[in-house]
Amino acid sequence: MLRATLRSAMLDITPLRTSPAFFRLWMGSGISTLGGTMTPFAVMLQVYRGTHSTLDVGLTGLTSALPGALFVLLGGSVGDRVDRRKLALLATSGQMLVSALLAVQALMAWSALWPIYALLCAQSVLGAINAPARRTFVPRLLPKEQVRAGQTLNTLAIRFGEVAGPSLAGVIASFAGLGWCYACDAATFLAALYAIYRLPPMMPEGHAKQRGMLDGVMEGLRFLGRSRALLGALLADLSVTVLGVPTALLPALVSERFGGRSETLGLMMGAPPASAAWSSLLCRALCATFGPKAKRFWSPVRPGPSPRWDSGSPPFVWLCVALLGLMGAADSILVVMRSTLIQQGTPDGLRGRISSVDYLVGTGGPQLGNLRAGLVGSALPPGAAIAVGGLFTLAAIFCVGWFVPELRRARAEDAP
User: Fold this and answer.
1) pLDDT by residue (tens digit) across 351-385?
2) Is the Cα torsion angle 155, 158, 164, 170 positive or negative in sign?
3) Is-contact 195 28, C-beta < 8 A?
4) Number of domains, the chain
5) Which candidate, 307, 272, 269, places its Cα nearest to that of 388?
6) Which of 34, 31, 138, 130 is nearest to 89 (CA)?
7) What's 296's domain CATH number?
């Protein structure tokens, strides 16, 4: 009995053994994410050092979210009409070029902010094309009973990159400069390009390519409107990330309370994904212990560090890191469950469009949250601004849970 319980609690790595293509994609995504998380760190630190304005830092979130939000549904519709492998190769190559250009502007010490904002806009559009296409790969590479395990492994790889990336970027920024953070990001895209290149053709199934572009977008939105549990999960995540994400306030918080060290900033930015990685490892154990109820798509609350505890002493640094870690653990559970519901409950012919909405919520929400945090931080001290976001997060989660009861009852196994 004990041996069976321990076996069920372990991370399920069956997809890595059964599908070499999934294994390559998993490795490539993890390496690429390791470099990709260096760029937001470097952008925020570069902008804050140049302006000392939380509003300018928050505007990086707007330029990273708004262009992608405008194109994401069209990007998902294109992904349901063409070979998704070729589309992902093209978009990934463009993202690598953008990271290289960011490295150039940093190494040349340009003082103007507009090149950074322009490159972030381009990166946002390319991400809105790339991510929905890539999110359709897992159900095509794995049998249905392994999709959740595959999503958990993907989340774990992404979280590992998000843990190591900011911490490594903090060290690189201290010893070599911010330009090399961007350069490392550009280099790690090679791993993702190789993994995608080795995939088989990924033409969408169904009749999506026979429809007009606008009709295809509307078809995806109608499907999403009929899936109230899925819609509720997306709304819950969007509400929490827009109202509760404190990332844009961290440079000011570290500068005001913790000496302004880039290593401390990297530690704080790495705390949420570190806890998220551990929660991904424990996700199977929770499901095995508590049964189907552990798989409900009820969004947990993500707390932030309290302003009362801000201090320059090391114990309070670690307290903030611990609270940010709780935020990341809650986020990881929600992401795995929501992704499983989307991949199992969406027909392949619609998967690109629904994944584009998921990408918009998962990526655009935190970026808009950074803008909101920057605006609030320009009027309040960093700690108080974080506390205000936490209170609004609690209210938003309660409202979504109250008005969308299907979310509380939803399980991945109920997906059609």
Assistant:
1) 777 777 777 777 778 877 888 888 888 888 888 88
2) negative
3) yes
4) 1
5) 307
6) 130
7) 1.20.1250.20
